[in-house]
Specification:
By secondary structure, the protein is of the alpha/beta class. It has a single domain, classed as Leucine Aminopeptidase, subunit E, domain 1, CATH 3.40.220. The chain is built from five helices and six strands, in the order E-E-H-H-E-E-H-E-H-E-H. Strands 1-6-5-2-4-3 form a six-stranded mixed β-sheet, sandwiched between helices. Strand 3 and strand 4 form a beta hairpin. It is globular, with a radius of gyration of 14 Å. Bound molecules: adenosine-5-diphosphoribose. Adenosine-5-diphosphoribose binds next to strand 2 and helix 1.
């Protein structure tokens, strides 16, 4: 299963995969960070489609087309805002990964790229978030899902190192 996981440093908007995951907010109307980058790269039709969806609760995922992105689909998920760890943040972040992977399976996407959900504006501690990402991805893949590759696209060295370490810990890579 380890061969299905890849950790890279880069820009998720340039990934040539079936689906990229967006770290959105509950309105799905765009924002800064990776959300802003994805909307800029996809073009205005993306916002037209997300506007039709009418929002997404924290921890859930919604699918749109990728428009001008190399990726065919964008899976929008809403991570929890970190408020100390006592507000069910870990379970909600785990839901983001599980629901995004399930959405990929449902649309037949075989390769999926994740950003480091919630670790920017939402202030989720990076090492904790990376561990949740790996544990949940491993649990999902163990169920035999028809996924060829899961790529974690890290924006900068610090994020890359945290995801690399979490991968070693959880997958024994
Ligand atoms: N490619 C990959 N990762 C990126 C990119 C990019 N082009 N741009 C930013 N990132 C990284 C950030 O460096 C961070 O590691 O994505 C991670 C998530 O950070 P945010 O984008 O701030 O997302 P999040 O912490 O989940 O906060 C979501 O921010 O942009 C708004 O609308 C969004 O309200 C929502 C909130």
């Amino acid at each position: 299963m380890n061969e299905k996981i890849r950790i890279i440093e880069g820009d998720i908007t340039r990934q040539e995969v079936d689906a990229i995951v967006n770290a959105a907010n509950t309105s799905l109307l765009g924002g800064g960070g990776v959300d802003g980058a994805i909307h800029r790269a996809a073009g205005p039709e993306l916002l037209q489609e997300t506007r039709q969806i009418g929002g997404c609760p924290t921890g859930e995922a919604r699918v749109t087309k990728g428009y001008r992105l190399p990726a065919r689909w964008v899976i929008h998920t809403v991570g929890p805002v970190w408020s100390g760890g006592g507000r069910n943040e870990e379970a909600l972040l785990a839901n983001c990964y599980r629901n995004s992977l399930q959405a990929a399976v449902d649309i037949g996407a075989k390769t999926i790229a994740f950003p480091s959900i919630s670790t920017g504006a939402y202030r989720y501690p990076l090492e904790k978030a990376a561990e949740v990402a790996m544990i949940e991805t491993k649990r999902f893949l163990k169920q035999g899902a028809d996924i060829k590759e899961v790529i974690f696209v890290c924006f900068g060295k610090k994020v890359f190192n945290a995801y690399q370490e979490a991968f070693q810990r959880i997958f024994g890579g």
